[in-house]
Specification:
Number of domains: 1
CATH superfamily: NAD(P)-binding Rossmann-like Domain
Mean pLDDT: 94
Number of helices: 10
Strand content: 15-25%
Order of helices and strands: EHEHEEHEEHEEHEEEHEEHEHHEH
CATH class: Alpha Beta
Helix content: 25-40%
Oligomer: single chain
Structural class: alpha/beta
Distance between the termini: 38 Å
Strand order of the largest sheet: 3-2-1-4-5-7-12
Length: 291
């Protein structure tokens, strides 16, 4: 990219905020949006460009769009019912950004569906089993088609479970009584530290990386093994390891749905194109940073 990027962050939540704070040091112009008026006011007080908006169409007449070279779409799925909204506004937004060179969509590994514990790379056929996964995939397809039509680069980040400061299960484990199911066969979970997501975003923008990427660390683990190892490292009470039958009674539907899809993410392309070395290649290397 020959000019310094002007980045529009749509839906500047947990990942977006971390990117905002880090990317400013690179001299990039950043414009953040959020539904949270207090958050926007806080950003303004720190010298960031930001705007409060309920829905993306609210930004369509903003004069700053003429400067935007990169869009990061981190907007969560709409609720009641859950659905992707990109089909309603993405084309209009793109048409109002004449200097746009690159779109990055923050998607989810839920688009893959269940892989019965197999290693999954970006070529895996997507068969999402959840409404969330289905609509994440729809949003991906909207951006891919628009970018293809307008000859604009795109990056699709299929994110594993994000953790970091203020977003982890350390407090729950330390409180004791944490329950984890020992599935048969084992059901794997995948993670990524927020700092490595930010590192990947910066790399993608700098290189105009194009295509789909699994954004995950190097250590998929059965969830029961993950929480047991983490509790041991934290000096927390050992979690209660329960059977699938016990889990069906004791755990919430939301918690159980987390284990519906069983896969291990292949992150080879992530390493090759974006981040050869992760700051936190697994959760064990991040524990001290989260204390």
């Amino acid at each position: 990219m020959s000019q310094l990027p002007c980045v529009l962050l749509l839906g500047c939540g947990y990942v977006g905020q971390q990117f905002l704070y880090n990317a400013k040091d690179q001299g990039w112009r950043l414009i953040a949006t959020s539904r949270d008026a207090a958050r926007v006011e806080h950003w303004h007080s720190q010298g960031y460009e930001a705007m409060q908006m309920e829905e993306p169409p609210a930004i369509l007449n903003d004069s700053r769009l003429s400067d935007v070279t990169v869009i990061i779409d981190s907007i969560p799925l709409a609720r009641q019912p859950i659905h992707a909204t990109q089909g309603d506004w993405a084309a209009s937004l793109l048409s109002r950004c004449p200097r746009l060179q690159h779109v990055i969509y923050l998607s989810s590994t839920s688009v893959y569906g269940d892989a019965s514990g197999e290693w999954v790379d970006e070529s895996w056929h997507c068969q999402p089993t959840s409404i969330r996964g289905q609509h994440r995939l729809l949003a991906e397809q909207v951006w891919q088609q628009l970018c293809h039509n307008h000859k604009i680069a795109y990056s699709i980040f299929r994110l594993a479970g994000i953790y970091g400061p203020q977003r982890n299960i350390h407090a729950k484990l330390k409180a004791g009584g944490y329950r984890a199911v020992r599935w048969q066969p084992e059901h794997y979970s995948n993670r990524i530290h927020v700092d490595d997501v930010v590192q990947a975003l910066s790399a993608a923008i700098s290189t105009v990386a194009t295509g789909v990427y699994n954004i995950s660390d190097d250590l998929p683990l059965p969830h029961a093994d993950y929480v047991s190892q983490l509790a041991d490292c934290l000096g927390a009470p050992a979690p209660w390891i329960i059977s699938p039958e016990e889990g069906a009674v004791q755990l919430s539907p939301a918690m159980l749905s987390f284990f519906k899809d069983n896969k291990r993410l292949n992150n080879k392309r992530f390493h090759q194109d974006l981040c050869a070395v992760l700051r936190y290649p697994n959760f064990l290397t991040a524990i001290e940073s989260l204390q």
